[in-house]
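Progress narrative, work stream C.
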Amino acid sequence: MRFKYLYQLLLSHISVLLIAILLLWLLFSSFVERFIYENKVDELNSFGVQILHDLSDPAQASPQFLKHYSNLLQARNIRFYLFDANSRVVNYKNQSTLLVKLTDKEWAQIEKGQRIMVKRDLKRFGQEVTLVAIPYMQEKIFIGGVLLVSPISGTKETIDEIIQFFFYAVLAALAVTILLSWFLSKFHVKRIDRIRHATSLIASGNYDINIPSSELDEIGDLAKDFNGMAGRLLSSQEEIEMLENRRRQFIADVSHELKTPLTTIGGLVTGLKNDLIPSGEKERCLELIEKETKRLSRLVNENLDYEKIRSNQIVLNIEPIQISEVFEIIKEQLEMQADEKGNSLKTESAEDLVVYADYDRLFQILINITKNSIQFTANGEIYLRAREDGPNTIIEIEDTGIGIKPEEIESIWVRFYKADISRTSNPYGEFGLGLSIVKKLVELHKGTIEVSSGIGQGTRFKIKFPRHTQNN
């Protein structure tokens, strides 16, 4: 059976209050009753002591003495009986044969000089009374005593009146508590309902949520944590959507890039097979087939490299490498491509400067960045520089090309990202994998890579290699 949290809170609050009131009621009523009865006993005892103090012999009390105390005690609704050693009452006329109403046990205590105090007696006087009996001793010999009796009807009325006032106070407190508990419970349930509603929105895929939170209590902390979770989910969703868009673009680019060389290769192969191509053009056709085949191979290799690097499946062979020689090899390999776009490659490095790196992966890093610079530079210069900087070797590749927008600089390291999406026909790094591979490789060398650029101001890549990188 479903039991709403609001009612659970109300029931728990009211239950705790009722239990507390019940315990308080029992303690209070017991305390009040005991306090009043003890006061009554103390009052009777003090009068009894005073009477015996003023007497020389209970059996020889004067009429004036008896009248004085009768009037005094009657005003307080108290009766007193003077009795002798034979238990006969002696202070009432024609009642010398009246025996004091004490039990054998009580009489034995009186004879020993012990006082009798009874807070509530229901049997001996036809009504509920409080009684005190005090012995009178002369030289340790019992010669009589005094018995004081007071009905407790007035005492009970006082107790009942006090308890009645307490009961009204309890009812008022209970009403206020229920009302306050209702509002507090509604307040907390409302806060929980906000989180429930937000949870349903999260479940439906809406992560753009912010719940009012505070540091008042755990519910406020929960709302704060929920907002943090929603924010992270929203960021993840945006990142997933961004990656998904790039993946779609990547698939479109790959499909386009595969279709073009495959169509070219297929057409040339068909022409060669059916002797549709003149003999003088066959060598050129074979060169074109080879070029398109290498282009397809680059696509496959880039994807395989990225997955290996991402899953740490490659092992680096760190060794000292003379950087000037690497620059010269890169210049020889890419000079023709640079010339096609009117660019010039320039290198600056000390002859004896070395970098500690894996030779093949270092070459892959530098060739990728240099090709990227050639791609986005026309009729300009590309500089390859190297220098020492304390415990590091710094390599910089700078161009005078079109540059990168500041808001796009961080995105160039993301897989499938392409700074100029329209350049899908570029044969170098055309699938947006080159720079993501570069960054991973630099990090595997325990190094760092930075880029600075601006539209129309060219781009500079700065790579920092530790001079004593350990083999991974």
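Work stream C, second folded protein:
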Amino acid sequence: MINATNYLEKIKGISFSQLPEHLQKGHAYVQKATENGSNWNAYNNENIKRVMDAYFGKLNDHLSKNPVKVKKEQTQETEKEISPSVKSTEKKHAPKHKQEVIEEEEDFSFVERLPDEIRFLRRYLSLNGKKKTKEDLLRFINTLHKAIIEKKIRKASPYAKQMEYIQDKLLKTYNSMNKNITAEISDKIILEFKALIASEKVMPSVNLIKRYINLNGKYGVKEKAQKLMEAMTKAYDKNKITKSDKYFKVFDQMHFNLSNYIKNKTQKILAIQPTELNGLNGFLAGCGCLHDNEDHLNGIDEVTGQEETPVINPGVVSSMDFKNVQFKTLGFVGKFRKLIGDPSRGFSAMVFGRPKMGKSFLCVDFAGYLARNHGKVLYIAKEEGLDMTLQEKLKANDVAHPNLFVAEDIPSDLSPYDFIFFDSVNKLGLSVNDLDTLRANYPEKSFIYVFQTTKDGHFRGANEFQHDVDVVIEVPEKGLVVQNGRFNQGGEMRIFEEDYKQAA
């Protein structure tokens, strides 16, 4: 039986060019991993050992069914196959797209998340032939040390030797550097590390799920959704994802959601229901699909020295405790506190009024106030666009500020901003469900929606728009602003009068 111990001896006289393609690739894999049989250290790695043993088993099985007469003298063809300096006849049978690893599923491991060590192996190989500064190496060293301290890389890791090698090499090079260098990595290390990298691949279903989650809550991603749905269909048709996949039910639901989103012309934002998203986050926890640096919810600190209170139901709070809860507000002052009150973070408001009555003037001024005092603001001016009219409104009352940003359309990522204005919801084509999705995805952000009105002065859109916001602001006549909401009932003011312009 052929194994790692007798491989080189047993394959003498075997013409691999006459063997099935998967055995040719298996032989090529062993040659690369062992530096043409001169160094078998890579076989000590659990993942590489598993791949090689699988190949040895297939080779033994094939030879038992198809005996090969081994020649006493090695042929010229065999010498060519073994020698790395000569183009082997195997390459004539290689697939059009070059593969450095065995292609069949059983020849490498499918994992939900690539180990952190594999990521560091890739990063280390990427240094080869590149000009690097001392600061570049220091960043790499610090990142590696952080992973070790956080126990993402452990001594028991199957890649511990490689991590130790990388660390020692980086430190030695860093300490000896007096100027910028061009990094050079030996061919031996390149071959060894590439073999390790090729031994594990992320499950196709997990890769597609990650792409799906990245589209969640994004505006105008129908083209990306279409491409994702096509990729999912292709993966299923080619049996890369089957019903036996542990995530097939989720995969199937994703495909259904994407199909509905693409067909629905009124839906501008891909919406994943909160319960569905929680489920995705649950089974993907630890697979590297979500950002590792995201803040997690902290539990309530244990209270000591008090009489133990029996738990009634999760989420149920005693009225005696609740009455003493202090809610944090934004701290509005001046004219906007008189109009709106003092809202908490994550509030929502709608503004509507007939054209030329002053609703956009009010909103731009409000955006400037928020930028000066409370955080970063994005004003999406879909209705008027980035034209001279908007410029004049920004100049009025000195609204322009480094924290105030303007755009004609909704960017794919709203996370950099604390307050987002949509002027107008109608022009952007947003539905009630779209706005619900935005609030669900960005619960800490405050949204201000501007609406067009009908001829009789009512806002355009379903009544749900008004029911779902904290503050309703109407401009019923030129310059008059009337507000009703949670934080201040019945606020009112005139926006074109001198007192308004001078107010804080």
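The chain has four domains: 7-107, 111-201, 204-284, 334-502. No further action is required on this item.
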